[in-house]
């Protein structure tokens, strides 16, 4: 990951985190909130790997926790794990598959919501399990709607890396 | 040449792949540990401490960005709110219309029940009152069929011979005389109303004692006939059933059942009798409950 990519990714995550806290968090549709930060993080992690995903998730989470004056590190922890996991998926089987962003979003939306639920429960804070479970399907749908444009934006900002899996040598026959 | 291999230009290595798994895992582990440490510190001292100060400072720094984001999003949010309010207004309108329909039905049902209750109350009051004939008992009945047109002057009640109802039993409502039982089945009975052209009852002016025969008149009223011109009646006088005057010829109606009120009377020079118009007390168009008066000691 080049410095330029890092700056672009950081700017994107910063903007997404601010937008998430300031705008999208108040946009409730069918009891769920669209998560531009998660979708952006998934795009970055898929294109730039697990370390970029984990680091991006950590700092984006810090911004969210800071701006929302929540428990510091809570969102960071969940987003770090989510970014790392999606990054590993991109590094291994998910790369260049058209359905990878959508599949990642669907899965990570569930894991992210449940992860936050578990963390809040562990910390003894309000953890409305029923409400979270009921909002899972709308949340997945909303994030899937956001995935196409946001992933296209991330892909435009961060060009996909060369395919390393391609063989470095070509054995000529004959 | 063909057997030899051609070296391709080396592509830019995939960054994460290039790093060792150890480094990758170390980075993630460090981040997770730092996050856990932040959670611990933040949880232990949520309102004070260095981390709280740093968070406050960070929030202050982020505030302008948040305000800017909010302002940028405001037009979109307004548009969304507008569309949302239209959508919710439509659904609310549907819900309120549905509620209104239900409430209307409920009001009508309640009004009908209230009217019925009022009639039942009057009936009970009549049955427990002093004017109720002593030698009779009341069989309360519901009206199950009403006059279907101007040529029908009868109702069907849901009590019959199995309940003790007999032919020629007087029928009253809480207001006054309704008619007489003209046909009896085992569980139902036909009541001929006092507006029927063949109906006749001996009546007495409760105030003046003037007697006469009461027959149906025009427009749902009754006419007190055979009242000599020299007798005195007044508008507003109450007419009741006259009852049996001669034990050998017992009347079908016991004495004292209210029938109606004198609304007008006239004495033509050429006529022998007064023409007295009577308005029946019972509202024959909206009967819900009636009482059939049956003698306690039947004569036949």
Give the CATH class of one domain in chain B.
Mainly Beta
Shape of chain B: rod-shaped
Overall geometric form of chain A: globular
Distance between the termini of chain B: 136 Å
Low-confidence stretches of chain B: none
Q: CATH-wise, what's the superfamily of one domain in chain B? A: Rod shape-determining protein MreC, domain 1
Largest interface by Cβ-Cβ < 8 Å: A-B, 49 and 48 residues
Secondary-structure-derived class of chain A: mainly alpha
Please outline what is shown here.
Chain A is mostly helical and 174 residues long. Chain A contains 6 helices and 1 strand, in the order H-H-H-H-H-H-E. Chain B has a domain at 136-295: Beta Barrel (Thrombin, subunit H), CATH 2.40.10.
What features would you describe in this structure?
The complex is a heterodimer of chains A (174) and B (300). Chain A has 6 helices and 1 strand; from the N terminus they run H-H-H-H-H-H-E. Chain A has 174 residues and is mostly helical. Chain A has a single domain (3-157), classed as Orthogonal Bundle (Arp2/3 complex 21 kDa subunit ARPC3). In chain A, helix 2 (36-67) packs antiparallel against helix 3, helix 2 packs parallel to helix 4 (100-122) and helix 4 (100-122) crosses helix 6. Chain A is globular, with a radius of gyration of 17 Å. Residues 165-170 of chain A have low confidence and may be disordered. Chain B is α+β, with helices and mostly antiparallel strands and 300 residues long. Chain B has a domain at 136-295: Rod shape-determining protein MreC, domain 1 (Thrombin, subunit H, Beta Barrel), CATH 2.40.10. Chain B has helices at 15-18, 21-44, 50-128; strands at 5-7, 136-145, 154-157, 170-172, 177-184, 189-193, 201-205, 211-216, 222-225, 238-241, 258-266, 275-280, 289-295. In chain B, the strands form 2 sheets. Chain B has a 6-stranded antiparallel beta barrel with strand order 2-3-6-5-4-13. Chain B starts with a strand and ends in a 5-residue tail after the last strand. In chain B, 25% of the residues are buried. At the A-B interface, helix 1, helix 2, helix 3 and strand 1 of A face strand 1, helix 1, helix 2 and helix 3 of B.
């Amino acid at each position: 990951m080049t410095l330029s990519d890092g700056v672009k990714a950081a700017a994107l995550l910063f903007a997404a985190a601010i937008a998430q806290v300031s705008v999208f968090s108040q946009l409730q549709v069918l009891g769920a909130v669209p998560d531009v930060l998660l979708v952006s993080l998934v795009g970055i992690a898929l294109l730039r790997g697990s370390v970029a995903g984990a680091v991006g998730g950590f700092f984006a989470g810090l911004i969210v926790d800071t701006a929302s004056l929540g428990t510091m590190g809570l969102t960071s922890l969940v987003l770090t794990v989510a970014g790392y996991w999606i990054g590993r998926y991109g590094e291994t089987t998910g790369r260049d598959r058209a359905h990878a962003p959508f599949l990642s979003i669907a899965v990570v939306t569930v894991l992210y919501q449940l992860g936050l639920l578990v963390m809040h429960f562990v910390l003894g804070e309000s953890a409305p399990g029923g409400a979270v479970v009921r909002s899972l399907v709308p949340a997945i749908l909303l994030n899937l709607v956001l995935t196409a444009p946001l992933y296209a934006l991330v892909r435009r900002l961060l060009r996909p890396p060369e395919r390393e899996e391609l063989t470095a040598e070509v054995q000529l026959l004959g | 040449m063909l057997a030899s291999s051609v070296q391709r230009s080396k592509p830019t290595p995939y960054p994460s792949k290039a790093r060792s798994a150890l480094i990758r895992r170390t980075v993630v582990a460090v981040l997770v540990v730092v996050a856990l440490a932040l959670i611990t510190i933040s949880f232990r001292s949520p309102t004070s401490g260095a981390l709280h100060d740093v968070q406050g400072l960070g929030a202050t720094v982020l505030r302008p960005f948040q305000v800017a984001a909010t302002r940028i999003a405001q037009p979109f949010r307004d548009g969304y709110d507008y569309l949302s309010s239209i959508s919710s207004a439509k659904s609310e309108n549907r819900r309120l219309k549905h509620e209104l329909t239900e409430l209307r039905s409920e009001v009508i049902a309640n009004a009908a029940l209230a009217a019925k209750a009022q009639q039942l109350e009057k009936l009970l009051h009549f049955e427990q009152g002093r004017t109720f004939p002593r030698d009779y008992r009341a069989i309360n009945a519901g009206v199950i069929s009403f006059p279907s047109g101007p040529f029908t002057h009868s109702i069907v009640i849901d009590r019959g011979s199995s309940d003790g109802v007999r032919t020629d039993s007087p029928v009253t409502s809480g207001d006054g005389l309704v008619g007489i039982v003209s046909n009896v089945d085992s569980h139902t009975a036909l009541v001929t109303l006092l507006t029927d052209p063949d109906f006749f009852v001996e009546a007495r002016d409760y105030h003046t004692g003037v007697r006469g025969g009461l027959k149906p008149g025009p427009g749902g009223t009754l006419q007190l006939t055979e009242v000599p011109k020299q007798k005195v009646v007044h508008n507003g006088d109450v007419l009741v059933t006259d009852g049996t005057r001669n034990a050998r010829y017992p009347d079908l109606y016991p004495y004292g059942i209210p029938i109606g009120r004198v609304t007008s009377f006239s004495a033509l020079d050429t006529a022998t009798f007064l023409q007295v118009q009577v308005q029946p007390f019972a509202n024959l168009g909206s009967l819900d409950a009636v009482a059939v008066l049956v003698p306690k000691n039947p004569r036949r």
